[in-house]
Amino acid sequence: MMPMQNIPDVKLALVGVSRNCFPAELTRARMAKVVEACRQAKVEVIVCETIVETEKDAIAVLAELRTKRANALAIYLGNFGPEGPMTILAREFGGPFMLCAAAEEHANNLINGRGDAYCGMLNASINCGLRRLRPHIPEAPVGSPDQIAAMLTHFTNVARVVVGVKNLKAITFGPRPEDFYACNAPIQPLYDLGVEVMENSELDMLQIYQDAASQTKLIEETKASITREVGAASFKNPAKLQQLAQFEVALTRFAEQNLGTRSFAVMANKCWPAFERSFGFVPCYINSRLTARGIPVACEVDIYGAVSEYMAQCASLLPVTLLDVNNTVPDDLPIADLKGASRADLFMGFHCGNTPTCNLCSGCSLKHQLIMHRLMEPGKEPDITWGTLEGTLKPGAAMVFRVQATGDNHLQAYMAEGHILDADPRSFGGIGIFGIPNFARFYRHVLIGKQYPHHSAIAWAHVGRVLFDALQILGVQDISAPRQPGQLYPNENPFA
């Protein structure tokens, strides 16, 4: 598998705060225990030397954070904490931050050694609201040093998603196809998330592809990498290998040269029907290779699909894909283990061939794209429809996830955890059978009921907890997950 890149490195700072009517030494001593617990748990934190009691202290900590290049912040209430200075610190820091606090330690030290952090967390929360800040607050935010270390571990994963999105550029090529208005992409909510958008035409894509022909060294290196991945036997026509390698070089160079103020990039590209007649191949396999490297490329100019893939990638630190929630599973297709789902909850996730080889079972191979071949080359030997990657999705833990803006600029998201089942889907493309408990009602009342597109980001891990908390920080409040039997969705008919 190619090394993944395009993911932020979280540098988490830990700062202790103390209200001036409490001894600052109480916070300092408790924070030292947290730092030791982090060391034991192998949680990397940047420890701030200054304990924040006043706004002047907050200014000193900000300078320290900038010097140490911290991009995420944990504010630790070793006692009640000063709600003003700590929230000013969070506001001026500007990155993702969490609030956590010290539990009381000993029954015989509840006079001079009592910190009142339960009370302090309430005041801190109120002041965050007054300043319109969105902190991450753990489910049980007041805890022992070991518990705080566990909170910091989780927050590191959450912060990675937030920092990635806030430093992301979505690069697009081409308008959305006529039959895929479902991949609508209102721009304002992307800016609200923190994503920068750069839209280009298919002619721009063709020009950068033609210009890349001069990059002979990079093309030869890419051809060698492709051959190692899928084998020389895949290329009966050597010209196709040249075309695919040139296309990969073109997209990679364009992304690198157009980051601008951003650090990370995703792409959402038009991939049919004009593409094949202009370029002479399908882009699916190259999209899969960029995705494997950490640069998700969404099909059909699905910008929110690309952003969803990127968030799932940052949460799982694994290559992802984008699939259609595509078709039902026939009752006579044998499956040994449904992993807690019912037959009604099963569906096949499919796309033409954009899933990385590392997420496919052995035996995956380059082929022509059947649906496009029917449309563009009926009754002929595949030529311009060649270059897709077919195979069965690797079984294991998986989740479907999407963040999306509605036509009226309302941000919403869904996530559901389950498994890709160990079963032969007996079909074509990059395809697999998903078993997600309680998915049938979820599909009807969330995916259909809330008018989501057909594309879903797929992670080969259960990272719903991380993504849920990241969405909260990013300001997405409308988040859906499958409900248990007996728990009705808002518009579900109770008499059905």
Walkthrough of the structure:
The chain has 496 residues and is of the alpha/beta class. It folds into 2 domains: 12-165, 3-Layer(aba) Sandwich (Rossmann fold), CATH 3.40.50.10940; 167-480, no CATH class. The protein is 38% helix and 20% strand. The protein is built from 15 helices and 18 strands. It has helices spanning 24-41, 55-67, 83-93, 117-130, 145-166, 187-193, 202-211, 216-230, 238-257, 274-279, 284-292, 303-316, 370-376, 439-448, 464-474, and strands spanning 12-17, 46-47, 72-77, 97-102, 142-143, 168-173, 196-200, 264-269, 297-299, 321-327, 346-351, 365-368, 386-392, 396-405, 411-420, 430-435, 455-459, 478-480. Strands 10-11-16-15-14-17 form a 6-stranded antiparallel beta barrel. The protein has a 5-stranded parallel beta sheet with strand order 2-1-3-4-5, with helices on both faces. Strands 7-6-8-9 form a 4-stranded parallel beta sheet. Strand 4, helix 4 and strand 5 form a beta-alpha-beta unit. Helix 1 (24-41) packs across helix 5 (145-166), helix 8 crosses helix 9 and helix 9 (238-257) crosses helix 11 (284-292). The two termini are 48 Å apart.
